[in-house]
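User: I'm writing a tutorial on reading structure tokens. Could you give me a worked example: one chain, its sequence, then its tokens, then a sentence or two explaining what the tokens reveal?
Assistant: Sure. Here is the example chain.
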Amino acid sequence: MLPPHEQGLSVKPAPQPKQIRELRDRLSSVISDAKAYDVPAICFRMGLEPGTSDEAMASKYKYVSRRMAGVSGARVVEIARNFLADEDHFDLSELLAKIDEAEGPTITGLTRKRVIDLYGEFPICTEQELIDFLKALWPISTMLESDQIPGISRTLEEAIFQHTVRNYDWDNKEVLKAVGLPSMSQRQFFRFLAASVHPMAQNDERQAVMVGEINEHLKHDGFALKIVKRISGSPVYEVQAAQLGTPNDDAITASLVAFNPTDIGARWQAAQDRRLTDPSGAITLSRTLLEDVCKWILHEAGDTSDTDKDELPALYRKLAKAMSLAPDDHTESIFKQILGGCSAIVEGLGALRNKLSDAHSPGPKRARPMPRHAELAVGLSGAMAQYLVATWSARQEADKKE
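And here are its predicted structure tokens:
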């Protein structure tokens, strides 16, 4: 009979010997932290050979490690899972997570570094105290500082308080290094990312910017922060495997965030977020996105007219004239046709918004928007916004060279 990998079956990679040794040693240490008279019962409950309390009294660690020494790697992993089912232990769960992650898709060290580098500019949290935020993710009140001063022993909580509250001499990246984020399991890394963009940690505007920029790096390894629920209307994210075969919004996100992250980038992110859960709101935002882009580019182009009262079609006509994007500005029939289509898209988005968005009362007979309507509106507005921003950027570059 052919081996599993030649039959096309998925084969779970065996843990590395080094990982098993670390897990065996750590598990022995964790169990031996219990009172001596409890250690034999814990070992028995984990399926290890029984012994006497007197033996455990002599050396708890030796009592456990002798029994763990003859256990297979797979059995060590099973014992660790059983122990964690009854007890919380951060270090042990980290070792087990790293073993489990060997079988699945992973992010590269380079992606992890690039994401952590973002926190040189991003706040770790703005809506709660840093210490409280970290304590929800790490047992910093019991973890010891890794780079201890000789003769001084302090917890990570004490060290972070000293360097971020009393002295202000640690930046965000140094805090994340202190808690070990660069070398933590992928599970813990993803937990941190989700927590840092949670609505209890960041305001809506900051959240949208952070999600967009973090996803720009995660996408290369097939992951993305995705909305899993909402709290009082604000999205809650988790890192998940990116879905294949769906429309790719990454290029649009990169373009719009680079052009204007706080207004246009945030508006685009909000429109994407609402496509499934709030189609009416997404359709409204798709139109507002194009209005924003038109106004910002007109402003940068030096247009001094009052655009506040202009509807989207009027705004687009002004912008098309300023950037020579009107069909009449071209003689080639194919360009006239394409640019005429662009004008039709803008007109259509305005009409769709009036019919299906939440900008007006739907009344008893008005059609109710579905996610597919929102997907269409958001996709069209995003593509148009990206095109306008890219065209404006190209014009600016050309002017610099002249």
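What the tokens reveal: Confidence is low (pLDDT under 50) at residues 1-12. Strands lie at 223-231, 234-241.
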